[in-house]
# Entry
Amino acid sequence: MRQTVLLDWARNLEAQADDLARLLTLENGKVLAQSRGEIAGAISEIRYYGGLARHIPGHVLEVEPGVISTMLREPAGVAALIIPWNAPAVLLARAIGPALACGCTVVVKPAAQTTLLTAAFMRALSDVPGLPPGVCNMVSETGHAASARLVESPLVDVLSFTGSTATGKRIMATAAETMKKLSLELGGKSCCVVFPDADITATPARIATTAARVATAATIISGQQCTAARRVLVHGSIYDAMKEHLRTALAAIAVSDGMNPAMGMGPLIDTAARAQVQGQVERAFDLCDEVVLRGGVPDGLPVGGAFLTPSLVAHGDTSAFFCQEEIFGPFLVLERFDDEAEAVAKANHTVFGLSASVWTTDGARALRIARALRNGTVWINDHNRLFAEAETGGYRQSGLGRLHGDDAFADFTELKHICQNAGCVA
Ligand code: NAD
# Structure
């Protein structure tokens, strides 16, 4: 039954995938190709959890001769899911998928900015004939009262929140009263660590290619993705070349209406978010060692759209606020290192631990650095790749628990121990 509901929901969504992608671009501003990719990813993830609904394993141990301990995963109960606006389709799917697959009931609270997209997803779910009444619910609001109520309520057993670390901390403090389970997917400050020993950086053309990929990693959803590249640590021997190519690659990103198929970057979510990012970026311009690319509000674009072109600064001191704080927009910091130990120390100098990438074709080095970085996800020669099957989550202040993959069941189930003396004689 749970599998059938999830598969039927995916089919309903697929029938309107293009309309959903357009709605996502209209509400969020991201470019249409990214919206199409996100809707397809969300549908795929719902199917993945439809399959996993039939495989929620526990385990059995014979703890003493004849004494059998059975560990079973049971649904945790009512799960409240607070979903952000930056990737509202896929971030809904990765939370509601495991919650429903393992038998929880849910209350979904979308971000005000993307309520219509979430409502369209939930409508397609409520259209599934086999869905029992009351299992899936949605509450929308422009303020935070309903969210706060869900966090406080003793009737909610699991609170799954994707959003900023600051709000995550408030949720954690409030939830202490009821000791509900918490699944917290929070902010990040992802580093790309670029070594000189790779083929990809061996020639000027290869450096340009790497720079273009890092620029794309930094400007995905206009820099409003939790895993977006925020700091680029580059070995001294290729630092100057990388700086030049990154400046060129970021300056070449076309910024305009997300419905325009030629665009690389749409607007930020709203003008309030842009004002905040712009303020942080301008403070960084004043304090950094070098402004490499001075982004700003472009001319000639629709009034009311929160457009902001990318910025790049170079800086040496990792304790600067713009190396430490998450700036949720198209802003990148270039830093230099001279050996592996310095690269790791600089990359790990952060309270966050969401994701990072290592750029090298030396396989042993790639693994060595990946293990040394204190992050929930590390990509090698890539960035921002997320899969339904692969768990993601944060070390340190980037969160608690894991979503995607089958580990997500840990966030929405309780483990019950049933102990039985089978009366056997050893
Ligand atoms: P935010 O922290 O401002 O969250 C806003 C949401 O929190 C709204 O739904 C609001 O109703 C709710 N809220 C506010 N105060 C609350 C309270 N006291 N109790 C309960 N709920 C409350 O974040 P945002 O701006 O919507 O999203 C951007 C952030 O999300 C960034 O920090 C980004 O890194 C993070 N993010 C993380 C991931 C991840 O997987 N780790 C994914 C996407 C986004």
About this structure: Residues 82, 84-86, 91, 109, 111, 144, 147-148, 151, 162-164, 167, 170-171, 185-188, 226, 326, 328, 354, 394, 399 surround nicotinamide-adenine-dinucleotide (CB under 6 Å).
